[in-house]
């Protein structure tokens, strides 16, 4: 009987012909990752995104109730994931595929669930293939800062995921230690 562990690992047809630099987007302009494409929405609660003409990227986000940690506040993992997602969309909004190499998050205040918050993200600088990106999450409508993040995203060519599949197959064929 086939199990999840021996399913074929080649990317399925959702990615066929994709250049990974122009992923599917929601009506609110939100770029969708693989699992969220299947769900038809960003499961983290990112509802709108846009890049303005000064280089700032703006995101409207609501923490879903199923990401609650303490009473009525977000799990810290949700906050970190949203900052990874939003900051990682900045290269995509500039038509560049990248992956997160480093991410640092400061949790300034608890993030309320079921209440819209805003994330602003921007490029601090670029060096070689590295994008140094920062951002902050703030409460609406007052603008109190809830979280700050910064990190490094590394630009990748579209062969990144194929190379990973080959690397993984090599690991598997090497057998257990
Ligand atoms: C698809 C549509 C979805 C659509 C929508 C989805 C959007 C999702 C947004 C969230 C993004 C993610 O979570 S991505 C998922 C989480 N991240 C990952 O899976 C990444 C896993 N790590 C890796 O693949 C690798 O370690 C890399 C690519 C980061 C680095 O690989 P590498 O083999 O070392 O690459 P290499 O060519 O030697 O180095 C490239 C450049 O990166 C620098 N570099 C390498 N590692 C690091 C590091 N830890 N911190 C800083 N810089 C580093 C090197 O100095 C070099 O700079 P220079 O000399 O070129 O200047």
From TrEMBL:
Coiled coil (UniProt feature): none
InterPro entries: HotDog_dom_sf, THEM4/THEM5_acyl-CoA_thioest, Thioestr_dom
Its membrane topology: Peripheral membrane protein
Residue span, Thioesterase domain: 72-137
Predominant cellular place of this UniProt entry's protein: membrane
Highest taxon, organism lineage: Bacteria
GO molecular function: hydrolase activity
Catalytic activity: octanoyl-CoA + H2O = octanoate + CoA + H(+); hexadecanoyl-CoA + H2O = hexadecanoate + CoA + H(+); decanoyl-CoA + H2O = decanoate + CoA + H(+); (5Z,8Z,11Z,14Z)-eicosatetraenoyl-CoA + H2O = (5Z,8Z,11Z,14Z)-eicosatetraenoate + CoA + H(+)
Ranges of compositional bias, category Basic and acidic residues: 1-16
Cellular location(s): Cell projection, Ruffle membrane; Cytoplasm; Membrane
EC category name: hydrolase
Region (Disordered): 1-23
Alphabetic keyword roster: Apoptosis, Cell membrane, Cell projection, Cytoplasm, Fatty acid metabolism, Hydrolase, Lipid metabolism, Membrane, Transit peptide
Name of this chain's protein: Acyl-coenzyme A thioesterase THEM4
The species this protein was found in: Actinomadura rugatobispora
